[in-house]
Amino acid sequence: MKNVDLVMWTKNGAETLPLVLKRISEVIPSNSVNKKVIVDDSSTDSTREIAKSFGWDVIFNAGKGISDGANTALKNVTSEFFTSFEQDLLLARDWWDKIPPSLENPKVAIASGMRFANKPEGVRRLQQYVARKYRGEVKLEPWLKGRQMAAFTLGKTLDNTIYKTRIVKAVGGFPKLRANSGVDTTLAYIISQAGYHWFVDCSVQSVHLRRGLRQELSHQYWYAKQLYEMWRKIETEISKRPPVTKFNVISRFFLSPFTGIFIAMKTLEPSITYIHPLIRFYYLKGLLESEKWN
Description:
By secondary structure, the chain is an alpha/beta fold.
């Protein structure tokens, strides 16, 4: 694949950006890159200087947040294909060899690999178990048949992803949400509604750079706080609500102590016994907070 544009949106990413950009340059051949554009959202650290030192063009976000940043980046894309990465994603070394070829299928509009947290170990093992359960174990397919829609967005993220530019622009670009989360989830439904596929290769595993459990819990809370807006946007776009409901979130929280023990035994990782219930608690807390404003 030749002439692909690389885009990224950043905000105060100096802590991880050198490692992230170095890995991208090692994985993606320079002779396949047309342009490299970072859309910065008013960083107050050295993010912009770091980006320029790695040869990326830096422009300012025309709006605010991920949705505006992604669309600002899209306006600067001129190649047939483009990729998006996030500032805390360490790209898998086999990503270029395995993910872009997926777009040779005319029905595939977007393709990604998976990404798992580097720490703590319990979060990484939990994420890998979920991915294996839903996508990687053929023997579980009959049991999961009724839950396929719940796993529809698994792995469909914007942080290690390649797109057919024409199709993304044809569906109106990246979904416009006031919230900073849910752009990827909403786009997944829109792409499916348009008759295309978002392919996820579970064998390609990038690293989500995390500082620890506290950051992961904060992320779960932050994401869930914006669920209602995301659900409304999806319903507006495809006239159908996502399969996840408030009841699902509450019931999974109450079951989480038992589920945590079960997964800990399956993965031989004792810390999951408390990590899984904590994640479910913060997710529920975020959803209830979201409900106050909707």
